[in-house]
Design brief:
Layout lengths: L1 E11 L3 E13 L9 E11 L3 E2 L2 E3 L2 E2 L1 H15 L8 E6 L9 H8 L7 E4 L2 H12 L1 H8 L2 E7 L4 E7 L2 E8 L6 E4 L2 E5 L1 H9 L12 H18 L28 E5 L1 H8 L11 H10 L7 E2 L11 E10 L13 E8 L8 H15 L9 E4 L7 H15 L9 E5 L4 H12 L5 E5 L7 E5 L10 E9 L2
Parallel strand pairs: 1-7, 7-8, 9-14, 14-15, 17-18, 18-19, 19-20
Antiparallel strand pairs: 1-2, 2-3, 2-4, 5-6, 9-10, 10-11, 12-13, 16-22, 17-21, 21-22
């Protein structure tokens, strides 16, 4: 039995704000007496908004009222009312996620559709979101290759690398098309770090200066070289490490790429070749030209992206209601909790404890969002975990994976398909200590990139209602 639902996806980025309305067809693909697996079997974008510059009150604050006015205008143009929508998602990315009032923006928009997936994306999560929107994860799996997506936006460039569909690493650099803006032939604004870097390059540039195209081209060629260095396509130069957002880490030098995809606003310029040096009042087009001319990028294959400027816009968020199994462990005082990202352990890795630990250590930091106190739900099949000894080994493996990346104030959340929630939860609690809350639910299926809401226990505390939300990207 299929069901059609309507959804909205909203992306508030450093440079641009946009939305998409979609119609989804969802169906339970699991057989009778099995854990439900609700999948989106068809999706159709029914409306794409105009792309707006993100309105700001100041360099530190988003203009919340102006953003909401944009959304209301686009709802009206699309002929869609909030009550027509069953689901949706709001993603705040780039520098917008770091604005002082990012949370209040979400609150203001929360009444415009039902129960949104809400992600205030840090640099690592944004790298994954844009790569999935570009289709890099699927491409890597289908091609059986190591492929990186580089999402070059207004304020940052986000990189995510996939090997055979498996996330291998992320990074983010302060390189973007709106780090220098131009108005009436003069420099209107320049990112302070880039101003200092230009000075060291012997290409000094300041607010109010005449916009010297040749000088700006030289700066953009250096930025394009830095992007190639970040992808291990060129040796890293002195000072390169200072470019990473919030002092983040570069990709491991052991990563060797077979191919790349490009997304983001600058990628749109890369493919569309707009005329003029400053068609959008910034250096985005010059940066795109520099990337196009950087020889290091030609050493690997470039694949087309599903999306460029809209890569981080979610097409929709599909919500499905499930009920946990009856053998579960939870901390009642923590429930309900909402918008918990899911980290799924691949079934082929579950029989190797070391691979479970490695996956958690590699991928959990990406999903932690604004801090290590944010919970992440670890999802497993656990179909081959039956005996007491096997459950104890699994519990130890999970603790080994989380102890370095999860502070004790964050609850440890585990969901399994197999009916082992209570005994696994008890084993985890003994290992992490009674002061560290543990929630262990079973009878549920979720995948990496999903978000879950866990409601207050019902049926005398025997089960918990769980909403699983799947972010869907354009294709």
């Amino acid at each position: 039995m299929s069901e059609k639902i309507k959804s909205v996806g909203i992306d508030i980025g450093t440079s641009t704000t946009q939305l998409i309305f979609s119609e989804l067809t969802i169906r339970n693909l699991a057989g009778s007496y099995r854990v439900p697996r609700i999948k989106i079997v068809d999706k159709r974008v029914i409306y794409k908004s105009a792309i707006y510059f993100t309105p700001l009150q100041s360099m530190a604050a988003i203009d919340t009222a102006a953003v909401k006015a944009i959304m209301q205008k686009e709802y009206q143009k699309a002929g869609i009312k909030p009550e027509d929508l069953q689901t949706g998602a709001v993603i705040i990315t780039g520098d917008s996620a770091r604005k002082d009032n990012a949370d209040s923006v979400i609150e203001e928009l929360s009444d415009m559709a039902g129960d949104f997936v809400v992600a205030t994306a840090g640099p690592d999560l944004e790298s994954v979101l844009s790569a999935r929107g570009a289709g890099t994860d699927v491409l890597s799996r289908e091609q059986e290759k190591t492929i990186a997506n580089i999402d070059i936006g207004g304020g940052t460039s986000n990189i995510a690398v996939y090997q055979n569909g498996r996330l291998m690493g992320t990074s983010c650099l302060n390189i973007g098309g709106r780090l220098i803006t131009v108005e009436e032939g003069r420099i209107k604004n320049i990112f302070p770090d880039l101003e200092r870097r230009a000075e060291k390059m012997g290409q000094p540039i300041h607010r109010g200066d005449q916009a010297d195209v040749e000088k700006l081209k030289k700066i953009c060629r250096q930025l394009a070289s830095d992007l190639a260095q970040a992808l291990n396509l060129k040796p890293r130069e002195a000072g390169h490490d200072a470019l990473y957002t919030n002092g983040g880490d570069p990709l491991d030098t052991s990563i060797h790429l077979d191919g790349i995809t490009f997304s983001g606003g600058v990628a749109a310029c890369l493919y569309e070749h707009p005329s003029g040096s400053f068609p959008y009042g910034d250096i985005g087009n010059l940066l795109a030209q520099a990337v196009r001319e950087e020889k290091a990028f030609s050493t690997v294959e470039t694949y087309p992206s599903r999306e460029t400027i809209r890569a981080t816009v979610v097409g929709a968020g599909s919500h499905t209601m499930n009920v946990s199994g009856s053998t579960i462990r939870y901390e009642a005082g923590l429930l309900p909790i909402k918008n918990i990202p899911v980290l799924k352990i691949r079934e082929e890795d579950e029989d190797t404890p070391g691979k479970i630990t490695q996956t958690i250590q590699r991928e959990m930091p990406v999903l932690l969002g604004n801090g290590e106190t944010s919970p992440v739900a670890i999802a497993l099949s656990a179909q081959n975990t039956q005996t007491f000894a096997e459950i104890q080994t699994l519990a130890q493996t999970i603790v080994d994976g989380t102890e370095k990346v999860l502070k004790r104030s964050a609850p440890l959340i585990v969901i399994t398909e197999n009916d082992i929630g209570k005994v696994l939860g008890n084993a985890l609690s003994l290992l992490v200590g009674r002061e560290h809350p543990v929630i262990s639910l079973d009878g549920l299926y979720a995948d990496t990139g999903d978000y879950i809401d866990i409601g207050e226990p019902v049926a005398g505390g025997r089960v918990c209602p769980v909403i699983i939300k799947t972010i869907v990207f354009n294709s």
